[in-house]
Design goal:
mainly beta; Chitinase A, domain 3; Thrombin, subunit H; 2 domains; five-stranded antiparallel sheet; binds zinc ion
Length: 176
Amino acid sequence: MPTIEKDKVAKIHYKLTNDGGDVVDTSEGREPLEYLHGHGNLVAGLEKALAGKAEGDSVKVSVSPEEGYGLPEDDLLVDVPREHLPVEDIAPGMRFSAETSGGMRMFTVMEVAEDSVKLNGNHPLAGETLHFEVDVVAIREAEPEELAHGHVHSGGHSHEEEEGEGGSCGEGCGCH
Ligand code: ZN
């Protein structure tokens, strides 16, 4: 029976809750999530917990911020001149990606002042302990192109949360 290991593609149903018991994200009602194991496509603590699991296994794991989305960093709270932002109507809660010295990063608009905007480049779940419940639905071999790109190419995956680590696709990649 195949088990989850580096360079295998696993299909999982998952539910993510925070310390308060709120469901933050879930695959319920959607197709299961497919991901390429061992390439940083899931937070480190979850990948670690899934390694060695087989089809039909259920995993319950709590992941510390250090192995999740990190701890909030003060230097990711930035004020930028309003004219540096590409959109006219800026409101708190809006998110967009921007190039930083550390690569592409998602920023959330925190406050809008007359001529400046306060942005938060921390992940919305930074500092949170992540409680995952995962069912392993299927495991398959990865395609060579998936290994080259470092992510799966089956339908339904999203590049939205990518922050510039790995996963840069060449010409002709149909996954964008
Ligand atoms: Zn790709």
